[in-house]
Design a protein that fits this description.
Elements: E1 4-7, H1 17-32, E2 36-39, H2 53-64, E3 71-74, E4 80-83, H3 95-107, E5 111-114, H4 118-130, H5 146-154, E6 160-163, E7 169-174, E8 178-183, E9 191-193, H6 201-211, E10 216-220, H7 227-237, E11 243-247
Helix pairs in contact: 6-7
């Protein structure tokens, strides 16, 4: 197996020490194994985009002597380009790709359209919290027929798409933590495509890691809670998961990040 690792920052600010440490682990793992190390820009959160942050990331890598095989590059004239055969390496340039897999999930009954307003969702969660229940979507829109969905979309409503969490448990072997399992009963029907058609992190990261043939994902332990949703998406799409390794965070003496 060819080792392929990636660092996938969001351009919402400047690179911090935790990102850099994880990038170094990804880089050294790929280089030690004769594999490839790539950069992917996860920019689906456009509201938090910070201009210049991608360019700053690439300059930081250059100063550190970190070379990458695929991903964005900073041209001599200051513009951004790309290198590699698995691009685009910026998520907002891959929206048609994500739509295909979202449509596949809808067609297979693994996902559904949801028209609930933010106000309704807030009221629902407040009621669940008052009843000491785990806040999660109540599946009000799960039973909508195809005709109902079509009519509401034609009328101008813009739904999100949610994945339908199955029952039971899922487990995986973390390269650092060993066997980790999750009970799915308290995990929400995650939104995988927003009402503007842009995917959320969970769908985009699964699709990108698969299509870019990522073999190992090294990431901070704060992402551990996201793993069951991504395991379920891999299963729904019939894909083999990469090896996950959730690394400890760098903490201050008071235990803050």
């Amino acid at each position: 197996m060819t080792i392929r690792t990636r660092i996938a920052p969001s351009p919402t600010g400047f690179f911090h020490i935790g990102n850099l440490r994880t990038a170094l682990w990804d880089y050294f793992m790929a280089r030690a194994a004769g594999g490839q190390f790539l950069i992917r820009i996860e920019d689906t959160d456009q509201e938090r985009y910070v201009p210049g942050s991608i360019e700053a990331l690439l300059r930081t890598f250059a100063r550190m002597g970190i070379d990458w095989d695929e991903g964005p590059v900073l041209n001599a004239d200051g513009t951004l380009g790309e290198k590699g055969n698995f691009g685009p390496y910026t998520q907002t340039k891959r929206l048609d790709i994500y739509k295909k897999y979202a449509d596949d999930l809808l067609a297979a009954g693994h996902a559904y359209h949801c028209f609930c307003s933010p106000e309704r969702l807030e009221e629902m969660r407040a009621e669940q919290t008052a009843l000491k229940q785990t806040p999660k979507y109540d599946r009000k829109c799960l039973a909508l027929s195809v005709d109902e969905v079509t009519a509401r979309v034609a009328a101008g409503e813009k739904p999100v798409i949610r994945m339908q969490m199955p029952e039971g448990t899922v487990a995986f072997d973390d390269a650092i933590r060993g066997r980790v399992s999750f009970d799915l009963k308290d995990i929400d029907d995650q939104v995988i495509v927003k009402s503007n058609g842009i995917p959320t992190y969970h769908l985009a990261v699964v699709v990108d890691d698969h299509l870019m043939e990522i073999s190992h994902v090294l990431r901070g332990e704060e992402w551990l809670s996201s793993t069951p949703k991504q395991i379920v998406l891999h299963n729904m799409l019939g894909w083999i998961m990469p090896v996950y390794a959730h690394v400890p965070l760098i903490l201050n003496p008071d235990k803050t990040k």
